[in-house]
């Protein structure tokens, strides 16, 4: 009888826990934002697939595009460790440029095109090194939350923005260190789309696009970030330096 009673108690506990679990459906925008703000606490490590694209259009010269794609592993600490590898492709250039960077504690090592590792510690600020860190992106979204619209789909919530509020642009301009030349930099248009997965209420995909124009030219800078492999990344180990 005691074993049956224990089994019944376990079953009842499971039912109670299921009933008490928070649903991720039909949330208000404020509820989604609150859960998103809390989500960095759950992340000990993660991986980012990143793409930074610059597209210049000129009525006389045509188009030129540069794409910087990378994969970044973060291990969150007071001063996060990371390993990043990038490939940059530029129209008109015969060869891609490859770069790799490691950061562990205060040590930063880098190489280009498979060359020798160089100690570049102290040459970059933490803001420059960690600008796509999950927590920093969440913080910036919090700064512009009043400007965002939201729609709900089966498995995700989507935040969007489409406009030319210059304060909105400056939030992400500072985060991603964007600069425009040859176009009107005082009237930059912004587009944002952010996807939050319902199953864990974390940021899954981030797309930001800024565009500057003049009568004959336009420059578009876009940033795409996909966050995954949460709490799966291994410890970052520095390569050996000769």
UniProtKB/TrEMBL annotation:
It comes from the Bacteria. Keywords: Signal. Residues 1-21 form the signal peptide. InterPro entries: DUF6612. This is Lipoprotein. It comes from Sporosarcina newyorkensis. The lineage of its organism: Bacteria, Bacillati, Bacillota, Bacilli, Bacillales.
């Amino acid at each position: 009888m005691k074993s049956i009673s224990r089994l019944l108690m376990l079953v009842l506990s499971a039912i109670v826990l299921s009933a008490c679990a928070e649903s991720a459906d039909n949330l208000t925008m404020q509820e989604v934002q609150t859960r998103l703000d809390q989500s960095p606490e759950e992340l000990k490590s993660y991986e980012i697939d990143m793409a930074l694209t610059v597209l210049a259009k000129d009525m006389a010269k045509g188009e030129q595009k540069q794409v910087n794609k990378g994969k970044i592993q973060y291990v969150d600490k007071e001063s996060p460790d990371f390993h990043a590898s990038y490939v940059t492709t530029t129209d008109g250039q015969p060869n891609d440029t490859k770069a790799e960077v490691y950061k562990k504690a205060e040590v930063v090592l880098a190489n280009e095109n498979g060359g020798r590792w160089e100690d570049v510690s102290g040459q970059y600020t933490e803001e420059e090194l960690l600008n796509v860190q999950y927590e920093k992106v969440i913080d910036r979204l919090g700064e512009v939350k009043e400007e965002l619209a939201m729609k709900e789909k089966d498995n995700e919530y989507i935040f969007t923005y489409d406009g030319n509020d210059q304060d909105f642009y400056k939030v992400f301009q500072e985060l991603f260190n964007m600069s425009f030349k040859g176009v009107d930099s005082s009237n930059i248009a912004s587009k944002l789309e952010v996807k939050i997965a319902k199953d864990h209420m974390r940021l899954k995909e981030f797309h930001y696009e800024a565009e500057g124009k003049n009568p004959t030219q336009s420059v578009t800078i876009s940033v795409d970030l996909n966050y995954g492999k949460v709490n799966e990344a291994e410890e970052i180990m520095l390569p050996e330096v000769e």
